[in-house]
Automatic annotation (TrEMBL):
InterPro entries: Rhodanese-like_dom, Rhodanese-like_dom_sf, Thiosulfate_ST/Rhodanese-like. It comes from the Bacteria. SUPFAM superfamilies: Rhodanese/Cell cycle control phosphatase. It comes from Novipirellula artificiosorum. This is Molybdopterin biosynthesis protein MoeB. Residues 92-201 form the Rhodanese domain. It holds the Pfam family Rhodanese.
Length: 237
C-alpha cells in the first residue's frame, strides 16, 4: 500500500473516531520503557511493522495508485482494495456503508457482499428492433438522490462495481454532489483478470476482488436493493 493510500484511510478513520491515535502511539503497557531512546526507537519500529501488517492488502497483484487505469481514478482520490474495504467495514459497521452500483441482475446472480446496498449507477436495457434484440445501458437519473437518502455528505462510503470502472463514475457523481469521504473499491466484486499466460485461470477474474478476498452471498434482502422508478427492462415488439 502506498503512503498516500495509508494517509487517506488513516485520516478518514480518524475523522470518524475509529481509533485514538494517542493510545495507538503510546500503549499503556509500554509507558515505562518509553523513557529511553533505544527502547523508544524499538517501539516505533514495532508499531510501524504492526501497522504495515494490518494495512497491507491481501489482494494479489493490486496496483498502486499511480498505476491505476484511468477509468478507475476518481476526483476524490480515495481508493481501497476489496480486502481493505472489508476490514474498514468490520472496524466500524455502523459508521461505514458499502454501496454496490452494479445492476440488480449482477447483484442477485453473481453474488454480493451481504452488507452492501444495491443502488445501480446504470441499468441494462433490452429492445426489439427489426426482429433483433438490442442491448444497451441507461444511466440511473436517481442515483445520487437515492444515496442521499441513505447517507450524509461526510459519511464514509465504500463503492464497488464489477472491477472498479463504474464505481469510479459513481464516486465522481457523488463528489460533484458534495460527498467527501467516498472510496472507490478498485478491484470491485469480481476483480481483475489473471494475465499470466501459464495460469489455468488466464482471462478469469480471479486476481483479487471481493469474491476472492472477503465473505459474500447469493442471499437477497429486498430492502437493500434500491431501484429507481421505471428501471425495469423495456421491450418493444
Amino acid at each position: 500500500m502506498t503512503a498516500r493510500r495509508k494517509s487517506n484511510i488513516k485520516s478518514t478513520l480518524a475523522r470518524q473516531n475509529f481509533y485514538d491515535e494517542k493510545s495507538l502511539m503510546q500503549p499503556k503497557e509500554h509507558a515505562g520503557i518509553c523513557r529511553s531512546r533505544p527502547a523508544l526507537v524499538l517501539l516505533l519500529f514495532s508499531l510501524v511493522g504492526i501497522f504495515a501488517a494490518v494495512a497491507t492488502p491481501s489482494a494479489i497483484g493490486q496496483e498502486t495508485i499511480s498505476e491505476l487505469p484511468k477509468e478507475k481514478q476518481t476526483a476524490l482520490g480515495l481508493y481501497v482494495t476489496a480486502a481493505e474495504a472489508y476490514e474498514m467495514w468490520k472496524a466500524a459497521p455502523d459508521g461505514v456503508k458499502v454501496i454496490d452500483v452494479r445492476t440488480p441482475e449482477e447483484y442477485a446472480f453473481v453474488g454480493h457482499a451481504e452488507m452492501a446496498w444495491n443502488i445501480p449507477v446504470a441499468f441494462v436495457t433490452y429492445q426489439r428492433k427489426d426482429g433483433k434484440t438490442e442491448h444497451g445501458a441507461k444511466m440511473n437519473p436517481n442515483f445520487v438522490a437515492e444515496v442521499k437518502r441513505l447517507a450524509g455528505p461526510t459519511d464514509t462510503l465504500l463503492v464497488m462495481c464489477r472491477s472498479g470502472g463504474r464505481s469510479a463514475m459513481a464516486v465522481n457523481q457523488l463528489a460533484s454532489a458534495g460527498f467527501k469521504n467516498v472510496f472507490n473499491i478498485t478491484d470491485g466484486m469480481e476483480g481483475d483478470k489473471v494475465e499470466d499466460p501459464g495460469s489455468v485461470f488466464l482471462g478469469k477474474r480471479m486476481r483479487n476482488g471481493w469474491k476472492n478476498s472477503a465473505p459474500w452471498t447469493y442471499g437477497i434482502d429486498p430492502e437493500r436493493i434500491i431501484l429507481a422508478e421505471g428501471a425495469s427492462k423495456q421491450t418493444k415488439p
